[in-house]
Design a protein that fits this description.
Blueprint lengths: L2 H20 L5 H4 L10 H20 L4 H10 L15 H19 L17 H24 L2
């Protein structure tokens, strides 16, 4: 892996640590609360962040998994906690999945970050470009989590 890719993965991990730090003091019960004027809760935001990174990679590579399919039903665009089922990962499970995800992505895709695929939305054609986009997306959801916490 090239040095600049290590910088990218350091950023992915750092921003992910920011997400996990933001929910460190949140209880399972608090993660389920949907404050007035909000559409989702902290648990949904965590699942959505986890899904988003894999979903964009899958959209680019066309390598689909049953995990992403299930997560899309619970945490995909336009879903809400009302879509949760008994199989939906709980708050603690989501935190653990989020913690592991950067290493999983690095292990699976670290050597092919600049491999070119047919372009997708916004002209992205490499996993490297997708990861940059998902970092931005996580920042938006970090703000949503902070906003929800203000109303708990």
């Amino acid at each position: 892996m090239r040095n600049e890719h290590q910088v990218l993965f350091n950023q992915v991990r750092t921003y992910r640590d920011d997400i996990l730090s933001a929910v460190e003091d949140v209880s399972e019960h608090q993660s389920e609360i949907i404050p007035e004027h909000f559409n989702n809760n902290i648990r949904w935001n965590l699942g959505h962040i986890y899904l988003d990174q894999f979903l964009w990679i899958e959209t680019l590579t066309k390598e689909y998994s049953s995990t992403t399919e299930a997560f899309n039903k619970w945490f995909g665009f336009g879903t809400a906690p009302s879509n949760f089922t008994a199989e939906t990962p709980n708050f603690e499970e989501l935190k653990e999945l989020l913690k592991q995800q950067p290493t999983e992505i690095e292990n699976c895709y670290g050597d092919v970050l600049t491999k070119e695929f047919p372009p997708i939305e916004m002209g992205m054609y490499t996993i490297e470009q997708v990861l940059i986009r998902t970092i931005f997306h996580e920042g938006m959801h970090l703000q949503a989590i902070w906003d929800i916490k203000k109303h708990l």
